[in-house]
Amino acid sequence: MPVVTIPGSKSLTARALFLAAAADGVTTLVRPLRSDDTEGFAEGLVRLGYRVGRTRDAWQVDGRPQGPSVSEADVYCRDGATTARFLPTLAAAGHGTYRFDASAQMRRRPLLPLTRALRDLGVDLRHEEAEGHHPLTVRAAGVEGGEVVLDAGQSSQYLTALLLLGPLTRKGLRIRVTDLVSVPYVEITIAMMREFGVAAEREGDVFVVPPGGYRATTYAIEPDASTASYFFAAAAVTPGAEVTVPGLGTGALQGDLGFVDVLRRMGAEVSVRPDGTTVRGTGVLRGLTVNMRDISDTMPTLAAIAPFADGPVRIEDVANTRVKECDRLEACAQNLRRLGVEVETGPGRIEIRPGVPSGTGAEITTHGDHRIVMSFAVTGLRVPGISFDDPGCVRKTFPGFHEAFAELRSGLGDDR
Ligand SMILES: O=C(O)C1=C[C@@H](OP(=O)(O)O)[C@@H](O)[C@H](O)C1
Ligand SMILES: C=C(OP(=O)(O)O)C(=O)O
């Protein structure tokens, strides 16, 4: 039964790169994710004057607690929101003029609550075209620190960026949060900061980060839990199939591993052990109502297998999936409807009715979103004739996805 090697976590790799760059000393990242997002992040650091040594299985970063070594830089963030939100924040701690731009897709995505908070902290940051969007320029002169208010109801990445910045400020930061989504990602940030020598704390709505800087370390990156969701879902929709992902188990930092609890509720057999996780398809897939506010990157995974459940699948509290790589609620609805599935959406919810009419394969409109491709590839295990208008957009987080999924397919006895 298939044992699947999942590439490193995008979220952990991006944070580790920031922390390594900001730390005093040389940090080694073991098994980082090598994909468009994380390579774009590393490339951005190089543009800002950091030395990043890359071999296949380890990346080494020479940290500079005082910030970028160059006084001017032009950084292209590609499609990566972690890059586009974390790197301008890192640059703010330095001294110089740094310009940031991003792909058309990333230019459309918001970051105003973050840039507003940075301005409130005294950072000279200007949006060049649309307010709250890339491109932008930071004229950095260090950050004094203090208290700031932040609305992270659209993206937790705004809070993560400020938390990561905290130890680089002179006085530390107190971040008062008025709303917050994707809480487990903030927990990852705090846990990783601790590994780099900083104890950030949450006191109700206030996140407190002491000044003092980071310490370099050696950091091993976990496999990516959001990526693993496609392989777990594949097992759940295939009666008798069992998929094991080593390296992602009880001690995992990533909230998205919680997707297996959704599969368990639907009827799959799930075992989460210290050394890995196994999902077994039982032939039972029940409909359910589930709140995915904490694990919304796995919303498309669930939407894509929902028609195979025996009752409606209602996914709630996922309004912020409308400002990801695309409007994911509408993209899921559009593609499911094209397959003949009945779907309803609301501002922050989607409801999918059971049943896929036979012989209804279709070309999936990906909107350049890696998760739409990887999710509907799972649908393709049960619906023949699914293809994608842009299969290559998986490069954002998993360039080898199609090969790995084809291998899984033949491991499940499906040689289509
Ligand atoms: O901090 C991170 O690494 C991420 C946070 C989440 O974003 P939001 O907080 O915008 O939901 C998630 O969707 C994204 O893929 C990665
Ligand atoms: C939303 C995602 O990415 P980003 O880091 O660009 O927000 C994602 O990977 O699903």
From TrEMBL:
Pfam families for the chain: EPSP_synthase
Active site feature: 297 (proton acceptor)
Gene Ontology BP, a term: aromatic amino acid family biosynthetic process
Pathway info: Metabolic intermediate biosynthesis; chorismate biosynthesis; chorismate from D-erythrose 4-phosphate and phosphoenolpyruvate: step 6/7
Enzyme class: transferase
Binding site for 3-phosphoshikimate: 10-11, 15, 155-157, 297, 320, 324
E.C. designation(s): 2.5.1.19
UniProt keyword list: Amino-acid biosynthesis, Aromatic amino acid biosynthesis, Cytoplasm, Transferase
Gene3D superfamilies: Enolpyruvate transferase domain (3.65.10.10)
Membrane-spanning parts: none
Protein localization: Cytoplasm
Annotated residues for binding of phosphoenolpyruvate: 10, 109, 157, 328, 371, 396
Keyword Ubl conjugation appears in the UniProt entry: no
Main location: cytoplasm
Domain Enolpyruvate transferase per the UniProt entry, residue ranges: 4-404
Keyword Nucleotidyltransferase: no
Example of a GO cellular component annotation carried by this entry: cytoplasm
MF (Gene Ontology): 3-phosphoshikimate 1-carboxyvinyltransferase activity
Catalytic activity: 3-phosphoshikimate + phosphoenolpyruvate = 5-O-(1-carboxyvinyl)-3-phosphoshikimate + phosphate
Record-linked PANTHER family: AROM/DEHYDROQUINATE SYNTHASE, PENTAFUNCTIONAL AROM POLYPEPTIDE
Family statement drawn from the similarity comment of this UniProt entry: Belongs to the EPSP synthase family.
Subunit details: Monomer.
Function summary: Catalyzes the transfer of the enolpyruvyl moiety of phosphoenolpyruvate (PEP) to the 5-hydroxyl of shikimate-3-phosphate (S3P) to produce enolpyruvyl shikimate-3-phosphate and inorganic phosphate.
Designated name of the protein: 3-phosphoshikimate 1-carboxyvinyltransferase
Species of the source: Streptomyces guryensis
